[in-house]
Amino acid sequence: MGLLNVLIVVEIIYQGRTKPKCGRLQSVQIRFQIETPEEYKRIVGGMTTNISTHIAALLIQDTEDLGYSLICATVIISLHHSLTACHCIDIMENYTGKVRSGSAYWQKDGILHDIEAVIRNEQFNQNYLDNDIAILYVRPHFYRREIVLVAGPNYKLLDGSYIKVTGWGERDQNRSNTKYATWSETLYTVDVQVINNKKCSKMITQERSDYYDETELLLQQSQFCAGLPEGGRDACIYDSGGPAVQNNVLVGIISSGASICGHKNFPGIYVHIPNVNRWIKNMSRIFNFEVRFDN
């Protein structure tokens, strides 16, 4: 396959030339309410952390007052590249995108990076957020110490095991599905439990049946879910694209969930990194950047 064809397949998008698109979210069926960018994602029931390694803030700049707003998070995987949720890219349309790294605060300190290019997963499904992953290319470079170890294809993410989720999103469960949802000034983290995909699909289908007359919703191989039986801990609005880590290995990217964060019958949904590992590895080969894998 020639280089030109490769570029078409992976749909690399350069800022200022072509607006990045991953599909509109109004048709997403995995959530109760996902009508506006305010409904994207979250940390509820967690605690503050000063660990800013691996995670960076994905920002958009207002063209009038030149201030910044947090829209998502992103995870550093090489000196110039980071992973995020593909649906986050759509929010960047008509704005200047920036990444802030090296700080526990999304609005200050650390380093601001320009987003030079976006590589989206061509198999992204706008209806179910399947393969909800993209790669950002930034300048100036990140620091080597910030690069996360990425789960390989053989990594076993066991049902019942715990993952650590981090972000700057909404912390109040009662405010998470309202227009008053907002950001956390500092970084928060929470531990949640991996739930079997079949069980999770049934939980979500049952919960959604109160609102929709639909057949069973099945999570895809590129997805997994996590939460607690009693609820109360979750990612939340503005946390999309952030890391889910286990044993210091990146195993997931925050993707979607219920409009009320921490819902006991609607766990959060994540990109399953071992499943999309081949895509990440292929992109690193095509665009010549190094990623550290655990196997």
What distinguishing features does this structure have?
single chain; 295 residues; alpha+beta; Thrombin, subunit H; 6-stranded antiparallel beta barrel; 15 strands; disordered N terminus; serine protease
Describe this protein's structure:
Its EC number is 3.4.21.4. InterPro entries: Peptidase_S1 (IPR050430), Peptidase_S1_PA (IPR009003), Peptidase_S1_PA_chymotrypsin (IPR043504), Peptidase_S1A (IPR001314), Trypsin_dom (IPR001254). One of its GO terms (biological process) is proteolysis. This protein has 295 residues and is an alpha+beta fold. The protein folds into 2 domains: 3-35 and 54-147 and 275-286, Beta Barrel (Thrombin, subunit H); 162-274, Thrombin, subunit H (Beta Barrel), CATH 2.40.10.10. The protein has 4 helices and 15 strands. It has helices spanning 3-10, 86-91, 197-208, 273-286; strands at 12-14, 47-48, 55-61, 68-76, 81-84, 96-101, 111-120, 134-139, 149-150, 162-167, 188-195, 223-227, 243-246, 249-256, 268-272. A 6-stranded antiparallel beta barrel has the order 3-4-5-8-7-6. A 6-stranded antiparallel beta barrel has the order 10-11-12-15-14-13. Strand 13 and strand 14 (249-256) form a beta hairpin. The two termini are 28 Å apart.
